[in-house]
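User: What would this chain look like folded?
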Amino acid sequence: MACGGLKKYSDTDKNGLINKEGIMEYEIVKATESDRNEILSLYKMQLGREYCPWDEDYPSNETIDFDLSRDALFVMKSEGKIKAAISIEKDEDVENLECWDKKLNPSGELARLAVHPDEQNKGLARIMLNFGMEELKRRGYTGIHFLVNKLNIKAIRSYEIFGFNIVGECHMFDQDFYCYEKSFKEYGLE
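Assistant: Here's the prediction, encoded as structure tokens.
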């Protein structure tokens, strides 16, 4: 897939991603400025949900600005509505944590995975993670790493399915995190 290109899907077997006609069509595309309000709304819908560590200040319009400026924000759309979002993160403080395997450099980071509350538990987070990993690989990264809030049990269970390794723990942004990492070779994306 070319950067910013359109990747269309038609699923009948991805854990309930089926519409009334038996098929849910969706596309994962690079977010644009016109998606801003819907993305911010999606982020705000996560507030107060069990295990969600986000607050009124994060993520914000400034976060969206940063992601858009780097072509690093992607959305899943179906019938013209955003169902999920994920970002490729660039955070030097996270990059400089000692727990990351130096053999995986360069390693990319995914962040701000959000799924519309009405669409949760249908496999969309898994699809977005797969897309994010494919995009990181396309950009030349050899592995993936990310932080998961220690209280976010739902996310921790999801990442276990992918076989990510917990390689450390850290305290950043006034929160305690597990540090997850995986080689694309190990994941079969070499």
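Confidence is low (pLDDT under 50) at residues 1-17. If you want, I can go into more detail on any region.
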